[in-house]
Design goal:
Elements lengths: L1 H7 L10 E2 L13 E2 L2 E2 L1 E2 L2 E4 L2 E4 L5 H17 L1 H5 L5 H17 L9 H23 L2
Parallel strand pairs: 1-4
Antiparallel strand pairs: 2-3, 5-6
Helix pairs in contact: 2-4, 2-5, 4-5
Length: about 140
């Protein structure tokens, strides 16, 4: 069926690069999608436009990815943050314009649960303190 739809719409799908994910809540759904006599791989999560999508609809993996990306960016800015010649105002500006947007990218689409919201806020604060304030005070 999927192959027929692709053919009808003149879509060329690379089976080796394409994945299948079934969104489900409590029950496990067995779904095999065939294309060109090959079964496409089923996955439980994937990254799309920088956000991690999970088959259960949770945002935990996406939050973890954002925190990791925020830490990576903050680590990249470490040399600037440690530099005493750079003013506190510039350091705060870098944090607000680079680190925070990286941390919160895609968060507008999150259907936040209170526990996740608290974890995200705490992670943002930890990022700020760990990667910015500790170096500014040296």
């Amino acid at each position: 069926m999927f192959g027929h739809v692709c053919e009808k719409r003149n879509l060329k799908v690379n089976v080796g690069k394409s994945k299948v994910m079934v969104f489900e809540r409590d029950e496990v759904t067995n779904c095999e999608v065939w294309l060109n006599n090959q079964v496409m791989e089923n996955v439980s999560s994937f990254k799309y436009l920088g956000s991690v999508m999970s088959k259960d609809g949770s945002i935990e993996d996406d939050v973890q990815e954002r925190v990791q990306q925020g830490k990576k960016v903050a680590g990249t800015l470490k040399a600037v943050i440690r530099n005493r010649a750079v003013s506190m105002e510039v350091k705060k500006s870098l944090h607000d314009s680079v680190v925070i947007p990286t941390l919160t990218y895609g968060s507008g689409a999150w259907a936040l649960l209170r526990a996740t919201e608290i974890k995200t806020e705490r992670s943002g604060e930890e990022l700020f303190e760990e990667h910015v304030w500790s170096y500014m005070e040296r």
